[in-house]
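Review form for a predicted model. The reviewer records the input and the model, then writes brief findings.
Reviewer: anonymous (R2)
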Amino acid sequence: MVIMEKFLVFTFILVILYYFLHKRFLANAEGMILSGIFFRVSLLFMVLTLINPFFILYVVNHSNILELGAVGDWLGGSTAPFIGLASFLMILATYFTQKDELKQTKLSYETQTNLLVKQNQMIDIQRFEQTFFNLVSLHHEIVNSISFDINGDSKVDGRNVLHKIYLKLSKSLEYNETQNSINHRYKSINKGYEAWYIEYEMFIGHFIQNIFHLLNFIDRQNMSFENKYQYAKIVRAQLTNTELLILFYNTISRIEKRKFVEMMRKYKLFKYLNTDHLLYNKDKEIFQMNFHMEEISQA
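Model under review:
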């Protein structure tokens, strides 16, 4: 009976070992062969467990099965180390199996977390772009809604108004070029622009404020500068040369906020301003001093 118990325990361990090996190497053809061998060996030991007592009784040729006690003790002592080793291997198999399962669970969790982060980023980008393009559309609505009466008998709309009032600005910014001084030109621009702005603020105020809000909205986003610059290029593409000229004289006057000036420099809003259309040579010098366009990689 001792022999039978030992073989039953050993067979049970082999069956459990087969289960873990089969699970661990399921996707591996070599592993499946190995686990199949263990399974067949375990079946063999189960059969041997049943016939072993009678087989030993026949071979030893004892008439009394009780006389096999000494043989059973010997077999039990000789097989105990192997059963202990099998138990140890079983613990190792369990450990590695659980380790792999934990690793797979962790990878699955990290994958789901990354997908969730990317999904949230996509939602944030969609929200940003929706607001951004609404502001771009608002810019065109503001420009197209501008209406201006000339001498009370004719009317111009949209960008034609900006052209007309820029001509008024040109008159307001005239100065004596014989006074060849940058400081003198700055003073004449401030004086002329302020007088012009007071008269035409109702036409130009919303236009300038919306450009400021567009750039400020881009600048506040949590994204790389390269991405911000791409959106700023879209803003820049909406502006005609006349609009850029108005923004330039607005920028260098005392009326404009410092932050607006910094963002125009940062995102190079005047990159494609045709400086030949500036009113005076001193204005070109002022432009180079404030908005020198260095070559950059972005188009």
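Findings: The longest strand covers residues 147-150.
Further findings: The longest helix spans residues 69-145.
Recommendation: see findings above.
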